[in-house]
Amino acid sequence: MDSATLAMLVFISVLMGAFLLFGVLWGIKNKQFEDYRKFLDGANLDDEEALNEAYELELRKKEALKKRAKSNKDKI
User: Fold this and answer.
1) NCBIfam families given for it (predicted)?
2) What is the mean pLDDT of the chain?
3) SS3 for 49?
4) How far does CA 5 lie from the centroid of its chain?
5) Spans of all domains in the chain
6) In angstroms, what is the C-alpha Rg of the chain?
7) Alpha-carbon torsion 45, 46, 49, 51, what sign?
8) Residues 6+ apart with CB under 8 A from 44
9) SS3 call for 46
10) Do residues 7 and 1 lie in contact, with contact meaning Cβ atoms separated by under 8 Å?
11) Is residue 27 a contact partner of residue 33, using CB atoms and an 8 Å limit?
């Protein structure tokens, strides 16, 4: 391999590494990797009653979608 080609490959890899490092540091500075709501929501919705309510809501959504699909088929 030619030394000019090798130098170009090294330069490109160092440049890509610098961009990656800059992106990670920017993300840390702007708190892109922190999710405070995840822990708070997990603590608030961790009891059995909340899980049962979420399950019932999911069932109601499925029933509403079935009714809507049925009414759309009746209209056609």
Assistant:
1) ccoS
2) 86
3) helix
4) 39
5) 1-30, 33-75
6) 27
7) positive
8) 50
9) coil
10) no
11) yes
CB atoms within 10 A of CB 59: 10
Tens digits of residue pLDDT in 44-67:
666 788 778 888 999 999 999 998
Residues 6+ apart with CB under 8 A from 32: 26
| Rounded CA separation 63/67 (Å) | 6
* Range list of H helices, the chain: 3-29, 36-44, 48-75
Question: CA angle 67-70-76, nearest 5°?
Answer: 140
CA 13/CA 7 separation, integer angstroms: 10
3-state class (DSSP) for residue 1: coil
